[in-house]
Design brief:
Elements: E1 2-6, H1 18-32, E2 36-42, H2 45-48, E3 54-65, E4 68-77, E5 85-90, H3 92-95, H4 110-127, E6 134-138, H5 144-151, E7 163-168, E8 176-177, H6 182-185, E9 198-199, E10 202-204, H7 205-212, E11 215-218, H8 221-226, H9 237-242, E12 247-249, H10 276-291, E13 301-308, H11 314-324, E14 331-338, H12 340-352, E15 357-361, H13 365-374, E16 377-380, H14 390-396, E17 400-404, H15 407-412, H16 418-423, E18 429-431, H17 436-451, H18 453-464, H19 470-485
Parallel strand pairs: 1-2, 1-6, 2-5, 6-7, 7-11, 11-12, 13-14, 13-16, 14-15, 16-17, 17-18
Antiparallel strand pairs: 3-4, 4-5, 8-10, 9-10
Helix pairs in contact: 1-19, 4-5, 5-7, 10-13, 11-12, 11-17
Bound molecules: adenosine-5'-diphosphate.
Length: about 500
């Protein structure tokens, strides 16, 4: 099985969120299952500045864009011990920029940047020769690939028999652009209809991918169900429901070599289930030093790591902090970047409760590992969550997740009740309604369990033993690819 993975970010090259973690690990997981995998991503400044062994691949071509064209220079990265081939598509005008998608607002030419990237990826597939079985596309940035394969490249022998799989990592980001950007795609206007590429007068790249792909998947079975109705489908629920027979839900795995508490170079001391208390204490000491405290306090640490946006339930966290910080029962820590309002509000609660609430605004991979290792509880009170990775990292690092029952959180966390604690299946605390009272109640249950040492020990051991490696999910993707290959394109 020859698979081309096409995505806009991947660890260790460039990352803004969970998509990069998934695309960084999935190719190796598939290669381990006998797949011949190639990954293609844009050559951002971030990717080129990491000191990775990236060099010219000796391939250059023009990519038609609107009435003109733009040059694609192909780079290649070969890392020791990695089986998947990695190609990067360079065009300095489009990708040599400080961030991946823009800052407070998106880059105004994001349509052109990812129309170029999608078409260049298909061109590259054709130029690499041989024939592809699967073009696996991730999110709106690659939504045009299935349309290109079918409408413009269907007769090219390299992709003529390839099937396309469109994986949705978040319905809230669809790549919506003004209708004149349709001209940049090179696809005929006849496809700009509500049945294909148009969405309320705009060009919708994710919709395009869902319409033209041979199969569609998303990152958990619960989210796959939720997006087939409002509000989960974000306007595309009808289309997704019409594709229900070819819509799969596959939970993300985690990279257990990068996220391994026993051998994580970003921690002061490795730990496993047997010495979790010592490991967590060492991490708390290092975290306290990093935050400018003389020493950690004795209270349990409840942490949040993620994007500071409405989706992640920041308002609920702010409410819970305001209510509970004064009780002296718990220490809070937030690490994230996002909306200006959210950042400002968090800075304010940190100032209101010095020594009890720590807030770091910034994107710091090393600190994310340290916080998960130091934390006793990880908060994930999301409004919606396609899969979520932080609760999986938390489990591996012995931090108990407190989550809202939505999307992948339903599929990856089992609520702790006397029964599930007894039978060993409990892995966290789950609440239903998207309101502060729900989060506070669930956090209160977690803190009560923390005070009952035998129960907490059991819960922590149990979560640390969960297997969220890519083994199982990689096999599910393989099955999906096999099934899709057996369909007529
Ligand atoms: P999403 O993809 O919606 O942002 P996920 O939970 O799937 O959420 O993945 C988020 C990833 O990004 C995790 O690896 C998390 O550790 C990382 N992350 C998010 N914010 C930060 C930050 N401020 N600093 C470091 N890592 C972060």
């Amino acid at each position: 099985m020859r698979v081309l993975e096409i995505a806009s970010e991947a660890v260790p090259f460039a990352k803004t969120g969970g998509l990069a973690d998934v695309v960084g690990a999935l190719p190796e997981a598939l290669a381990g299952l006998g797949c011949d995998v190639t990954l293609v991503i844009p050559a951002y400044a971030e990717a080129l500045g990491k000191g990775l062994p990236i060099e010219p691949a000796g391939i250059e071509f023009d990519v038609p864009i609107g009435t003109g064209s733009r040059r694609a220079r192909i780079l290649r990265c070969r890392r020791e011990g990695q089986r998947a081939d990695v190609y990067l598509i360079a065009n300095d005008d489009l990708f040599d920029r400080p961030t991946l998608y823009g800052g407070a607002s998106d880059y105004p030419d994001n349509a052109e940047r990812f129309i170029f990237f999608s078409r260049a990826a298909v061109e590259l597939a054709c130029r690499l020769g041989g024939s592809w079985d699967i073009l696996h596309c991730h999110d709106w940035q690659t939504g045009l690939v299935p349309a290109y394969r079918r409408l413009l490249y269907g007769s090219n022998p390299a992709v003529a028999n390839a099937r396309t799989v469109m994986t949705i990592h978040n319905m809230a980001y669809q790549g919506l652009f003004w209708h004149w950007d349709m001209l940049l795609t090179g696809i005929d206007w006849s496809h700009f209809t509500w049945r294909e590429m148009e969405f309320y007068g705009q060009l919708n790249l994710l919709k395009t991918g869902v319409v033209f792909a041979d199969a569609v998947s998303t990152v958990s079975p619960t989210y796959a169900r939720e997006i087939q109705s409002a509000p989960g489908g974000c306007g595309l629920e009808g289309l997704l429901a019409s594709r229900r027979d070819s819509l799969a839900g596959i939970v993300n795995g985690i990279d257990t070599s990068l996220w391994n508490p026993a051998a994580d170079p970003l921690l002061p001391r490795g730990f496993g289930e047997a010495d979790v208390e010592e490991g967590k204490y060492a991490a708390r000491v290092a975290l306290a030093a990093r935050l400018g405290h003389a020493a950690p306090d004795a209270r349990p640490l409840a942490a949040f790591v993620g994007r500071l946006v409405e989706q992640k339930g920041i308002t609920l966290i702010l409410d819970a902090i305001t209510k509970l910080a004064g009780t002296g029962r718990v220490h809070f820590m937030v690490l994230g970047t996002g909306g200006r309002d959210e950042e400002h509000a968090l800075r304010q609660v940190a100032a209101a409760f010095p020594g009890t609430v720590d807030v770091v605004i910034g994107f710091e991979e090393g600190l994310a590992h340290l916080v998960q290792a130091a934390a006793d509880i990880t908060l994930v009170p999301s409004l919606f969550e396609p899969c979520g990775l932080t609760q999986l990292y938390a489990q591996r690092y012995g931090s108990i997740p407190v989550v809202r029952a939505t999307g992948g959180l339903v599929d990856t966390v089992v609520d702790a009740t006397p029964e599930t604690i007894r039978d060993g299946s409990a892995t966290g605390f789950v609440f239903n309604g998207f309101d502060a009272a729900g989060l506070e109640h669930a956090l209160g249950r977690a803190l009560a369990a923390y005070d009952d040492k035998p129960v907490w020990k059991r819960l922590v051991g149990n979560t640390m033993r969960q297997d969220w490696s890519w083994q199982a999910s990689g096999r599910e993707y393989m099955r999906l690819f096999e099934q899709t290959r057996a369909t007529t394109p």
